[in-house]
Amino acid sequence: MKVVILCGGLGTRLREETEYRPKPLVEIGGRPILWHIMQHYCHHGLSEFVLTLGHRGRMIREYFLNYQALTRDFTIRPGTPSSIQFHGEEPTPFTVTLAETGESTMTGGRIARAARYLDGDSFCVTYGDGVSDLDIRTLVRFHRSHGKIATVCAVRLPSRFGVLDLETDGRVRTFAEKPTLDGWASGGYFVFEPAVLDYLAGDSCVLEKEPLERLAADKQLVAFRHDGYFQAMDTYREYLALNDLWSSGAAPWKVWP
To answer: Could you give the angle at the alpha carbon of 77 between the alpha carbons of 76 and 80, nearest 5°?
Structure first.
């Protein structure tokens, strides 16, 4: 099963870090968040990736073309590149297909453009800007068990603000600082059957709108409830928080050794 990672967005809400690089290359603990996402999937046995490139996709290409040199110590005699000797442990083995999907193509259109690399099999999809401790193996087993076209991981999100429960006269009955909100939200981890491609039409197709709405209406979309950790890196504050977790050794998404 291959994993499609959507890597073509602008990342405008994280402009402090995305002014000069694509969002998937914004670093947590000195490694791109894309690396963290791929390590997570590899830990659960999925190591074949298709990256849908768009905004500053060339930088992502350069990262993987130079992956060994960027992630390992090495010895080199200048002028003779073939003499490079790498040191330390081999990196986690994976294969990655870099698929150009257009500068302004929307999420559904990017998946459709990359379909030729999916071999007609079931596949996973996620975004290049979120981390989780989700058990991917369990997610895939759940998807296979219900026989529908699509599975979405559902998560509970904390409120960004303190929540007040008020009396009619304005007195505060209770106060909760950033509680977990009622209801479920999409965590951005999907498992799809090839038939999902029939729901994707053109570069302007937004996965999160008509395709998922139609799948739900057709009773072909099932949610896997995840009560664990999930965090998207949408803002500079979230970027700082993720880096703080990593540097403290308490990153919940670090499920690999």
So the answer is: 105
Alpha-carbon span 4 to 122, nearest angstrom: 11
Per-residue CA distances from 219 to 21, 33, 160, 193 (Å): 39, 34, 32, 14
Q: What is the CA radius of gyration of the chain?
A: 20
Inter-residue contact 150 to 220 (CB < 8 Å): yes
Return the pLDDT at 75. 92
**What share of the chain has pLDDT > 70, as a percent?**
90
| C-alpha to C-alpha distances, 176 to 156, 170, 179, 185, nearest whole angstrom | 16, 16, 6, 20
User: Residue 31 forms beta bridges with which residues?
Assistant: 28
Specify the residue for token string 């046995």. Answer: 45
Beta strands in 13-149 (DSSP E): 27-28, 31-32, 48-53, 74-75, 85-86, 95-100, 123-127, 130-132
We report the CATH number of the domain holding residue 230 as 3.90.550.10
Domain span holding position 202: 2-154+184-247
> Mind listing the pLDDT tens digit for each residue in 82-99?
788 999 888 889 999 999
Of residues 33, 89, 91, 24, the one with CA closest to residue 61: 24
Alpha carbon 112 to chain centroid, angstroms:
18
Q: Residue 17 class from Cβ within 10 Å (0-12 exposed, 13-18 middle, 19+ buried)?
A: middle
d(CA 143, CA 154): 13
Alpha carbons 100 and 102: distance in angstroms, whole number = 6
pLDDT-derived band at 166 (thresholds 50, 70, 90) equals low
Whether residue 145 is contained in a domain is answered as yes
Element (H, E) at 166: strand 163-166
